[in-house]
Design brief:
The chain is mainly α. The chain contains ten helices and no strands. About 5% of the residues have low confidence.
């Protein structure tokens, strides 16, 4: 009877029960919010398996978190946790430093001189894309990758929230990744002709 009554209670009560070790409360929260967390990761990664992994990690964190700090707004907390999981995944995967691998691949399939020309064109396109970003995204991107500042350091300098920094950085990276993949596809197509 008690387990059934948990299905109809709000997030705060479920979090309270979760802090007492209630697996049933966790299961309800998981079923209630898994899709939200998964979708948050998927819209940034466009990869089902990785998004599922990130969603699982977010809920493992929720389970292990215990009563350390109360969560005021669970959907917002889970959304931020999923986005942070995506950023951690991308950093761990090294997507920000993929350019040298691309150059090595080009040198292997093209002559060294052709690869250097394409590399120069690729870098030029990359810099033009950065300059075409909206002002705040461009500033944040340069501070992160040219000055190697953390999200918190950027937020402090610009007097904005770290969440805004992460949002703008995510948008900039998404734009750049999409545009550079198109450019790289054109290069690969040209080299096979």
């Amino acid at each position: 009877m008690y387990a059934e009554s948990l299905n109809s209670v709000g997030d705060n009560e479920l979090l309270l029960q979760l802090s007492k070790g209630s697996k049933h409360a966790f299961d309800i929260l998981y079923n209630r919010y898994w899709k939200l967390v998964f979708n948050t990761a998927f819209k940034r990664l466009n990869d089902i398996e990785r998004s599922q992994d990130i969603a699982q990690d977010v809920f493992v964190q929720l389970w292990t978190r215990g009563t350390t700090n109360p969560i005021e707004n669970l959907p917002a907390y889970l959304n931020v946790a999923a986005r942070n999981g995506v950023f951690k995944h991308l950093e761990k995967e090294g997507r920000y430093a993929a350019l040298p691998d691309t150059v090595a691949e080009l040198e292997g399939t093209l002559g060294n001189a052709d690869a250097k020309i394409l590399h120069a064109e690729f870098l030029e396109a990359f810099h033009q894309l950065i300059e075409a970003l909206p002002t705040q995204q461009r500033i944040i991107f340069k501070m992160r990758f040219e000055e190697d500042l953390s999200s918190q350091e950027i937020a402090d300098r610009l007097q904005i929230s770290p969440k805004t920094v992460r949002n703008q950085l995510g948008k900039a990276l998404n734009t750049l990744r999409t545009s550079l993949m198109l450019f790289y596809t054109v290069i690969l197509y040209c080299q096979t002709r």
